[in-house]
Structure formats: structure tokens, C-alpha cells
Design a protein that fits this description.
Helices cover about 20% and strands about 20% of the residues. It has one helix and six strands, in the order ββββββα. The radius of gyration is 17 Å and the shape is flat.
């Protein structure tokens, strides 16, 4: 019995990394006639990463969690 890897298109996302000086390319990726969704940010190994490698999104997420943990609203 051969088991094959299947893709769950509800969970797959692509992220195009850019810099401040490089323009973003309009990129669409299809696999078996299914369009793979784009993401501007994601969580990977506990670190929030955005498409510009900025720490802003990560800091916002961590600040929100910390303020909820100590019951303070910002």
C-alpha cells in the first residue's frame, strides 16, 4: 500500500518576502487548478513573521497576549 502526501488547500499559504526597495510582484500559484492563497503574515515556531521581516507584527501580537495575561488593556 502506497500512501501519498496530500495537500490541504485550506491550510496552505504562500508568502512573498520583500524589502523596502524591492517591488512586490503580483504572483499567483496554482496547483492542480487550485489557487494557493496569499498571506502577509504567519506564525512559525512561535515567532510571528510578516512579508517585510519587520518585528512590528510580532511585537503587536506579543503585547496583546502579555496585556491579557496581566489583565491590562492597551
Amino acid at each position: 500500500m502506497v500512501q501519498r502526501l496530500t495537500m490541504n488547500f485550506d491550510k496552505i499559504r504562500i508568502m512573498q518576502f520583500t524589502t523596502k526597495i524591492s517591488p512586490q510582484i503580483d504572483l499567483d500559484i496554482n496547483y492542480t487548478n487550485k489557487l494557493i492563497s496569499k498571506a502577509n503574515d504567519t506564525k512559525f515556531l512561535g515567532i510571528y513573521i510578516d512579508s517585510t521581516f519587520s518585528w512590528k507584527f510580532h511585537i503587536e501580537q506579543i503585547t496583546h497576549k502579555l496585556s491579557a495575561a496581566i489583565s491590562v488593556t492597551i
